Queue: 2 jobs
Job 1
Amino acid sequence: MPTLLTIFGIRFYFYLDEHLPIHVHVTCSGKKAKIELDPEVKLVYNHGLKEQELKKALETCVVYRTDFISEWHKRFG
C-alpha cells in the first residue's frame, strides 16, 4: 500500500490493485475513509473518522488533488 502523504496524523494511500474512479484511502487513529478525487473531491465512505479529522482529510485532498491524480496515473496508467 503505497503511502502518498502523511499529515496531521492522517495517512493517504493507494492499494496495489486500485480501480476507477480515481480515489485515495485514508487512515487516522485506526479509522478509515475513502475519498474520490475525480471529477471532484468527495467522500465515498467514512468508517469512524471524527468530523475534524475528516474535514482535514478532505481539505488535504483538495490541496494535493493534482499530485494524487498524477501518482495514480504513474502507478495505474
Job 2
Amino acid sequence: MIRQEGDRTMQTNTDFTIRKAERKDVGLLLEFIRGIAKYEKMEDEVVATTETLEAEMFDHHRAVAVFAVVDGKEVGFALYFFNFSTFIGHSGLYLEDLFVWPEYRGRGYGKALLLHLAAIARERHCGRMEWSCLNWNQPSIDFYLSLGAVPMNEWTVYRLDAKALEKLQATK
C-alpha cells in the first residue's frame, strides 16, 4: 500500500517501485495501451504495434514510459514526452497516458506515478506538466483536481490524423 504523508509517498505492506520501461517491455507497453484504450472506449483506434513502439521509443527516443511495480508485477504505467512552451521559454513534460489496472486503483499507484513524473519535470527544469482527459472521465477529473491540477477549459484540442496530413500535403 502507498500512503501519502505531506509531500512524501510512503510504502507499506508491499514491495512497490517505479521503473523505466526498457526495449524488452514493448509487448507489455502495448498491453497497457490496449487497456487504457478499452477503458476510454477507443479500442478500435489502437494501431500501434510492438515494432512501431520499439522504433519510436527506443530507437528514436520520442517518448518514455515508466511502470508502477507491486510485488514484481506491473500494475500501472505512464507514458510521456517533452514539448516546448514559447510563452514560458521552457520545455514541459506532456503526459500522454496514465493507466492503472482496475483491480489496483485507489491504492495510490497512479498518484505515485504522477509524483514521479512531477519530479522528472522539476529535475529537467520544465515550466509545466500537462495532459488531456476525456470530459466524461469524472473519476480521473476528480483525481487530477485533488492534486491541484487546473483544467484548461478555454482551449480546444485540434488534430490532423495521418489521412488528413496526407490530404493537406497534397494541396501544396
